[in-house]
Prior knowledge:
Helix content: 55-70%
Order of helices and strands: HHHHHHHHHHHHHH
Oligomer: single chain
CATH class of the largest domain: Mainly Alpha
Distance between the termini: 23 Å
CATH topology of the largest domain: Endonuclease Iii, domain 2
Number of domains: 2
CATH architecture of the largest domain: Orthogonal Bundle
CATH superfamily of the largest domain: Helix-hairpin-Helix base-excision DNA repair enzymes (C-terminal)
Number of helices: 14
Radius of gyration: 19 Å
Amino acid sequence: METAPAHPPTQQLSARTILRRAVDPISLSTSARLRTLHDRLAEAYGAQHWWPAQTPFEVILGAYLTQNTAWKSVERSLHNLQEAGALSVEGLRSLSLDTLQELIRPSGFQTRKAPALKAFLKLLDAEFGGSLDEMAGAPSPLLRQKLLNLPGVGPETADAILLYAFRHPVPVADEYLRRIAERHRLLTPPPGRNRAGYDALVLLTGQAFGADPVEVRAQLFNEFHALTVAVGKAHCGKIARCEGCPLESDRRQWGDPAQ
């Protein structure tokens, strides 16, 4: 998901806490290598402070609207919703489906995204009394499955909602991380653009931060996802631009030079 930083984490970590110096990469497992890549990105780009929203519900709206579109288009849709007083649960609930479709038209796929947002509200009302706080308090595996059961919600959207809206310590994987994993040979076979590939990336990321304290993992997963987007935009697009990349030395040692 292409977004810009703005949403501050609930708990700030010092650079000394987040950045642990890497040991000799020759001795590293792939999960430890990924943790070291995070450290290099954090040193290069600094804290990203994602997600760009003022409230958890705005995060949820953005997670739905950013599917298959650029964030600039999402910003126009969010502006329309703000002008209509619909950046809240109550505001969105008051909109008709036709009105909602028109307001989010800039994000595209409005005939699919609008009903999906309405389905989220039905879940919220039916099982959590309309309370985002109550929803956020549900166990991560249970809530993730409930989100995945909704129309228009895949693993990346569900995990983004869990991490950025509800502060659950779950990793988020995207196309940028998939490219990094493939080009740096972090997974064998390389992760595909499918559910199995996504799950493999999430598992690897969870293992990479498994030694970090549980209470800071949500922020670490937050920052790591944002940092992979930063390096992805700068260097790891459809065509790799490795010169000057903070991860260049790792790819020279471990990666596929043909890519």
